[in-house]
């Protein structure tokens, strides 16, 4: 019986065709993965916006950040928890949190090293840690806690500087990944800090610097205001894990005009924009 087999030329042709199909499919696969990642980012921001608005409804104002003055921060804290005696040490702890850590704190409460545990229901000390739950002499109101306003996924939390306050990432934390950041508008002062400078967030392993975005009236170029004026900005670095502009003290980021944008800005996502920052200009 005669045996049949592929010739060398036929095998090479099959390999060539398979290679061509793979080269055609890879861009589509990568595009689908990118869309899936951006869908997670968009959903995360949307859910954090809902949680931030819930904070405002509960406490009478949006969560502050470290750019606020001591007096402004104390006013916000006393409004949220009027029965707690706020010490300078308490204030220093809250103001030590950077723009990536503080939004996780406000929406998630105390971190036990694995998860966000909410705040204590003791009105005299809502910042009490969850360890009191395991103390038989501290049962009752101290053992009860508020649920986090946002359901943070444990695998996406990471306390990179080991200060007890984690950041939140779109995916599993990695050294080169950029966490989600939060900028809160100060009362009657926009996003400028108490020294009149633009606040920023920098992480050494991540390209660029996150700063709050501004908007400029195309018909009146001299008029500049802050995006989401009087509220807040939640910013995600996008799929490239780059925030963009690296010199916040000398450059402004003007949304919709692209002034001051670096390459990393264009795929950033933010609470005030419907889509990528660069796509909606």
Give an overview in words.
With 281 residues, the protein is of the alpha+beta class. The chain has four helices and eight strands, in the order ααααββββββββ. The longest helix is centred in the first third of the chain and has 52 residues. The chain starts with 7 loop residues before the first helix and ends in an 11-residue tail after the last strand. 33% of the residues are buried. About 4% of the residues have low confidence.
Low-confidence runs of at least 5 consecutive residues: 133-142
Strand content: 5-15%
The main β sheet shows up as: 3 strands, antiparallel
- Tell me roughly what share of residues is in helical segments: 25-40%
Strand order of the largest sheet: 3-6-8
Helix-strand category: alpha+beta
Order of helices and strands: HHHHEEEEEEEE
Mean pLDDT: 86
- How many distinct beta strands? 8
What is the CA-based Rg, rounded? 24 Å
What is the compact description of this entry?
By secondary structure, this protein is an alpha+beta fold.
Question: Strands, helices and their partners?
Answer:
Elements: H1 8-59, H2 70-80, H3 88-95, H4 101-108, E1 157-158, E2 167-168, E3 181-184, E4 214-217, E5 220-226, E6 232-236, E7 254-255, E8 269-270
Parallel strand pairs: 4-7
Antiparallel strand pairs: 1-2, 3-6, 4-5, 6-8
Using brief descriptors, characterize the structure shown.
globular; alpha+beta; 4 helices; 281 residues; three-stranded mixed sheet
